[in-house]
Amino acid sequence: MFEHFLSLQWKAFFRSSSLGKSIGLKILMGFLALYFMILFLLLGIGLYPLITNRFPTLDPVEAVNRFVLLWLGMELLLRFMLQNLPVMSVKPLMIIPVSKRKMVNFVLVRSLFSFYNLLPLLVIVPFGLFVLYKTNHGTGGVVAWMTGLYLLSLSVNYLNFLLKKKFAENIMSLVPFMMVAGVLALVESLGILSLTGIFGSGLDLLIQNSYLVLIPLLLFLSLFKLNQVSLKRRLYLDASLGEKEEKADERDFEWVRKFGDIAPFLQLDLKLIWRNKRPKTTIFLSLIILGYGLIFYPEETYQNMPAVLVFVGVFMTGIFMINFGQFIPAWDSGHYSMMMAQNIPLKKYLASKAGLITFSVMVLTILTTPYVYFGWKILVINIGCAVYNIGVNVPVLLYSGSFNRKRIELDKSPFMNYQGVGAAQWLVGIPLMAVPVLIFWLVNKFLSFGPAVGVLFALGLLGIWLRKPLMERIEGVYRQNKYAMIRGFKETGQ
């Protein structure tokens, strides 16, 4: 049965309308995966000499054990933010005699072959081999210790399943747990109670008593069973029919009517953002990212690296533009075919999108003006980046949107949801972020700061001046790709 499920997944991938872009994305992700695998392998090889130099009086295993809890905490955070849970289309299987247990087990076992589960092995195995060769620890104890660490990492994988199912739909419910984690971190940093030391002492016992590997094994099996029970409870065709009804938001945004022909489209976009979890999250995320400058601006090192400040400026003033704009027109994928069948001017539809994200850049630029406290150059850079975003990056995002083929479900998890992400979303980051930084760096290197910012201003103003012919060209590309986009947006489970 596992082979049959794998066959179905394989056919679904190769019969998708976005096959070419999916393969391109897989190749790109493959290079990134290889890069991180090499980094983690180098970390595993270099960890033993690094630990022995830093803690010469401690046993290397005991020294590493003091950091395992921090490692697991960071791993859980990164998995929650970045790891996609494995999915399969179960509705066609629900009407035929296929065991629910087998479907659930397939999804859970498939997650064990995740790239995220390979990375810890690349650190644990080389370090463990060094320990066997360089120390007097017995082979059984070291193997048990390595197995226990890897089982803890796999347990984090299944704990992430449970957390995502419970909290991904309502990220605000995580706030109390984040506050508790912050308090525990404060207690650790103040030396009141060393949680990492207590956890490390428990791992010290593992290498001395190999049979204690049963504890992480039981934890792993328990989390597997909890996920199995949780998934089986949700595995019904009518599982989503009994959801609690919520009062509809009737806000109409009548004030946008003053914007003329594009007003109806702006009104629909604002309703879409206000009434749906995933697009609404882009607003909250944009406000959070405004604090990004506090990481760089107070540091004198970055004050002497203006190219880095350009990256920060493009990112902060354009974060809503990036998060919302990269999924145009996939936000409307649920009714895109209906829109294209109506007498709707595509030019005005695109103009409304451009107007919305242009307005967001202006608002975010105003909100970043207090950073002038760290120097007038920062204010000038942010304004230059904002003009560049409006003139250059807005048309780039709209153009890249013509290659979107993946449907977005607006009622799905709003936090770190990668549904609808394709090759276009990854590749568009190069012209959006890297190009302005490179242009600024080159001009600043061979001329000076003033001309470098002036070039960003000039390119932005040139893009604004050429907005009409650029939009006509973009409209033509959307018309060429119209039917491919409709076909792709009709597919589910991408």
What does this structure look like?
By secondary structure, this protein is mainly alpha-helical. 72% of the residues lie in helices and 0% in strands. The protein contains 24 helices and no strands. The chain has helices spanning 2-14, 19-54, 60-82, 91-94, 100-111, 115-134, 139-167, 175-189, 195-208, 214-234, 263-275, 277-289, 293-296, 300-303, 306-317, 319-325, 336-341, 346-367, 376-401, 423-427, 429-446, 449-465, 467-480, 482-490. Helix 16 (319-325) packs antiparallel against helix 18 (346-367). The protein is globular. The protein starts with a helix and ends with a helix.
User: What fraction, in percent, of the residue positions are helical?
Assistant: over 70%
H/E element sequence: HHHHHHHHHHHHHHHHHHHHHHHH
The rounded distance between the terminal residues' Cα atoms is 22 Å
**What number is the mean pLDDT?**
78
- Low-confidence spans: pLDDT under 50, at least 5 residues? 17-21, 240-249
Shape designation: globular
State the oligomer. Answer: single chain
Would you spell out the secondary-structure blueprint of this structure?
Blueprint: H1 2-14, H2 19-54, H3 60-82, H4 91-94, H5 100-111, H6 115-134, H7 139-167, H8 175-189, H9 195-208, H10 214-234, H11 263-275, H12 277-289, H13 293-296, H14 300-303, H15 306-317, H16 319-325, H17 336-341, H18 346-367, H19 376-401, H20 423-427, H21 429-446, H22 449-465, H23 467-480, H24 482-490
Helix pairs in contact: 2-6, 3-7, 3-9, 5-10, 6-7, 7-9, 7-10, 11-12, 11-18, 12-16, 15-16, 15-19, 15-21, 16-18, 18-19, 18-23, 19-22, 19-23, 21-22
